[in-house]
């Protein structure tokens, strides 16, 4: 099984980028899932093909950051909520459908579809600062990616498998 995730990066990232689990660029989680089986060991091409149309259609949507919230067990994960937007919700729903059509298993089903709460997790840096978005910040949906959460079984790194982008730095 491959542990995969669709995200919308809000910081520059290149197609094929590899980064440490602790150095995620800021992103909006779209849907996280496991995929693959003995019959189809590498589902990434199929799921990327299914996601391409919805990803391209959502590029360019203008989003607005809302208030801060606390997610996770005991509210231990600080996040900036992203205000609801029809293009973002439609993208999320289409990517859930793409993942399940590729025999994916959604890891957090109660946080999908009508339960989806788009957000950007705050991220502590090595320098001791916190990368985050602030209420009122504007974000353009211009980097949507399929990311492998454990390439070659290595859970310490992440690998951008496919990037749909309208930005020059995407490469």
Describe the structure.
It is a single chain. The protein is of the alpha+beta class and 171 residues long. It is built from two helices and twelve strands, in the order E-E-E-H-E-E-H-E-E-E-E-E-E-E. It has a six-stranded antiparallel sheet. A four-stranded antiparallel sheet has the order 7-5-4-10, with no helix packed on it. A hairpin with a 5-residue loop joins strand 4 and strand 5. The chain is globular.
Topology:
Blueprint: E1 2-9, E2 18-20, E3 27-35, H1 44-58, E4 62-71, E5 77-82, H2 86-101, E6 105-106, E7 119-121, E8 123-124, E9 130-131, E10 138-140, E11 143-148, E12 157-165
Antiparallel strand pairs: 1-3, 1-11, 2-12, 3-6, 4-5, 4-10, 5-7, 8-9, 11-12
Task: Summarize this entry quickly.
This protein is an alpha+beta fold. It has helices spanning 44-58, 86-101; strands at residues 2-9, 18-20, 27-35, 62-71, 77-82, 105-106, 119-121, 123-124, 130-131, 138-140, 143-148, 157-165. The longest helix is centred in the middle third of the chain and has 16 residues, at 86-101.
> Hey, roughly how much beta strand do the residues contain?
35-45%
Alpha-carbon Rg, integer: 15 Å
Q: State the order of secondary-structure elements, H for helix, E for strand.
A: EEEHEEHEEEEEEE
Largest sheet: 6 strands, antiparallel
Net shape? globular
Kindly report the spatial arrangement of strands forming the biggest sheet.
2-12-11-1-3-6
Q: Helix count, per DSSP?
A: 2
Strand segment count: 12
Oligomer: single chain
- Cα-to-Cα separation, first versus last residue: 29 Å
Percentage of residues in helical conformation: 10-25%
Helix-strand category: alpha+beta
- Spans of at least 5 consecutive residues whose pLDDT stays below 50 are none
Report the mean per-residue pLDDT as an integer: 92
